[in-house]
Amino acid sequence: MPSRVEIWNEWGVIVTPALLHQIGNLAPSISRIARVTLVVLVLEKFFKGETMKLSMGISYSDGFKQAADRVVELEKAGLDQVWIAEAYSFDAISQVGYLAAKTNRIEIGTGIVNVYSRTAALMAMTAAGCDYVSDGRFILGLGASGPQVIEGFHGVPYEKPMQRIKEYIEVCRNVWAREAPLEYHGKTVDIPLPAGQGTGLGKALKIINHPVRKDIPIWWASLKDKSVEATAEMADGWLPIMFYPERYHNVWGDQLKAGLAKRDPSRGRLEISAGGMLAIDDSLTGDAQTKILDMARPNMALYVGGMGARGKNFYNDICRDYGFEKEAVDIQDFYLEGKKAEAAAAIPGEWIMNANLVGSTGFIKERVAAFKESGVTVLSVNPVGPDPVGQIEKLRAIIDA
């Protein structure tokens, strides 16, 4: 007879660390019936879509293996997802496997892998393999990267990035479904090679193994316009950047609405992951709060001020669309003139405060509610300070209250 965890997973429910952490803390002091009641209540919240998940990107600053050990502790504290970047560093996939062996329940995602350095079929095979070694805990995070990395490091032309991601999504799902040998003829992917290309010996094949899941979650790190619309239509999750809950609709509202209108209802809701720095303490008000929030300024100034020429910087456009038009001009002028400190100082404090989770318990409760109201289903956080486990525990308690 399967265990309770296996039964719940057959229902499509992932028994999160938060659930086990809550019950484990209470177990010595409550009866078995009370523990079962707690499980039922948490599952009920899950099915109603009321429970937000917690995620964070893994940091390599102290070495990957040390970071993986911290993830093990964070999993116990209530972290639900961890994302592994790739860029042009060590590949993300080998590290997914390492984390899968070290953890038990946390979901492990690529944040992100690009759609140029691996063929579409290899991407599907790789995701299926990651899902297998993690017992169905893998999330395939896809993105386009940029021409500097794709052409400069991988030596592949950076062409049709949005179309390529859409076709990779379709190929992956075809491979995982395993209903027929893979045949796909798109604008960027052509499988098998058509007549006149290659040796002519290629044939349509079906992946040998049976994937653990036929529909591994695919998240798309889209930035703007039609890509966001396609994300809302096709992907399981969206990884936006610089998300301001009360104003995100000024940037992406129309695209999300258009994409969701075309979304297959059987795919379920679009998951959205957003958030920022995390520091919860009742002493974090006034100058103490501002001191931590100011840590976000240099990186935001780099993006808003330095990622592109005038008129060709999407992050600067975000700043404008959020209603900070004068600040957007000032930040870019300062940054392009080499005045990085002035550019950082010009980032609107309101934006930084409301896009992060830094402050007193009461303030964080308000911000969590704002993120949830905006449609965010996963809070992506970066704990600040010496006790990341304690910070995750505090946030977990707020979410689950």
Question: Characteristics of this structure?
Answer:
401 residues, alpha/beta
Concise summary:
By secondary structure, the chain is an alpha/beta fold. It is built from 18 helices and 14 strands.
Structural class: alpha/beta
Largest beta-sheet details: 8 strands, parallel, barrel
Number of strands: 14
- The tally of helices reads 18
Instruction: Describe the strand arrangement of the main beta sheet, using strand numbers.
Output: 1-2-3-5-8-9-10-13
**In percent terms, what proportion of residues is strand?**
5-15%
Instruction: Estimate the mean pLDDT confidence.
Output: 91
Poorly predicted parts: 1-18
Question: What is the straight-line distance between the termini?
Answer: 33 Å
The helix fraction, in percent, is 40-55%
Shape: globular
Please state the CA-atom Rg, rounded to the nearest Å: 22 Å
Structure write-up:
The protein is an alpha/beta fold and 401 residues long. The protein has a domain at 1-51. It has 18 helices and 14 strands. The protein has helices spanning 4-10, 17-26, 32-47, 64-77, 92-102, 120-133, 147-152, 161-177, 225-234, 248-261, 286-293, 297-306, 314-321, 325-336, 340-345, 349-355, 361-373, 388-400; strands at 53-57, 81-84, 107-110, 113-114, 138-143, 184-185, 190-191, 218-220, 237-238, 271-274, 277-280, 357-359, 378-380, 382-383. The strands form 3 sheets. Strands 1-2-3-5-8-9-10-13 form an 8-stranded parallel barrel, surrounded by 4 helices. Helix 9 links the parallel strand 8 and strand 9 (237-238). The radius of gyration is 22 Å and the shape is globular. It starts with a helix and ends with a helix. The model is unreliable at 1-18 (pLDDT under 50).
